[in-house]
Amino acid sequence: MGQELHGAYPYVRDFFAEIERHSDISIPDHFFGSGSRELHENGPAQVGLFGVAIALMDVLAHEFDYVPDAVVGYSLGTYAAMVTAGCLDRWGALEVLLEVQRLLDTGRYPGAMGYVIGLRRPQVVDMIESIAPGGEKVWIGNENAPQQFVLTGEAAAVCACIEEARPFALAAEVLPISSPMHSPRLLPLTDELARFVEERIEVRAPSPSVALYAPMLGRRVTTRAEAVEVLCRQIARPSYWEATLRMLWTNGCHKFIEAGPSHVLAKMLRWTLRQAKVQVLEDPLSVEKFALGRHARGAELLEPRMPGEST
Predict the structure, then answer these.
(1) Long-range contacts (CB closer than 8 Å, 24 or more residues apart) made by 167-170
(2) Domains of the chain by start residue, with CATH
(3) What is the pLDDT of residues 142-164, one digit of tens each?
C-alpha cells in the first residue's frame, strides 16, 4: 500500500523522504517492488509500517476529511496510534521507535516469542508452569483473542513450551523474533527509554476527539501520565488485546478498520467480536471505497501494527 500512496499523493512522497532524513531508512528502497534484503529486519520493517500507517491517516484526513473516533495499536503499532490520538507528533514517535530498536539491538535483551492457538488460558498457564516453574522464564505476552496467546521470555523455555503445546493446540509455532517483547525481561530497557522520553519527547494527553486505547491497560488512556506510561512501558508489559477490543465494543465502537494488507488484526477481531464490522485498508481503492461509503459518522477504529508479533 505504501508504494501506491507514494505514487498518488505528493505529501506522502515528502513524508517518506523526511522519514529517510530522520532515520536513514528509505521506505521506497526497502519496501517498493520486490523489496530489499533488509525488508524483514526489525529496523526497516518497523519504520516502514509506522510510516505507512501515518501516511494512510494523512490521506484519510486530507482527501476524505476522515478522522477515527478511536485508535488502538498492536504492540509497537501503539506509536502510530498515539500520533493519531494527538499524544505526540510523528517525529517524536519515530524517535522513540528508533530508540527502542537501538536498545534492542545492543544484544542485552535476548529472548523469543511463539504463538499458541486453540488452548484455553488455564491450559496455557499450567503448561508454562510445568515447563518453566516459578514465573521467571516464560510469560503470556499477548492475549490476542479467545484461545489465542503469544508466549514470550527466555528462548529455550519458550521453544519448549511451544513443543509441549503442539500436540494439543490447533497451531503452535515459534515466531521469528529474537527479543522477549511484552515480558519483564525488558523492564531495564523501559527504564532507559523513560529517561530518553523525559529528556527529549513532548507527550500530551490524548485528544478529546480521538480516543486512545492501550492494550497494556486494556482500556482507554485518559491522562498525560497514562500516555507517558504506555509510551515508555508497554513493550515490557502484557498486551491485553482481546480485553481492549471488548472494551471498545462496550464503549460504542462497533465498526473497525485495519491499516495494512495482512488481515491479521481483522481475523483476531472477528474471533473476539463476531458481530463487529471490519474493513481492511490495503490499497488506495479500498481506502476510497471505505471513505466514500461512510454515510454517517460512526465509532470506527484504526489499528496500526508492527510485523511478526501476532498470528
Answers:
(1) 168/118, 168/119, 168/123, 169/116, 169/117, 169/118, 169/119, 170/117, 170/118
(2) 2-106+185-302 (3.40.366.10), 112-178 (3.30.70.250)
(3) 999 999 999 999 999 999 999 99
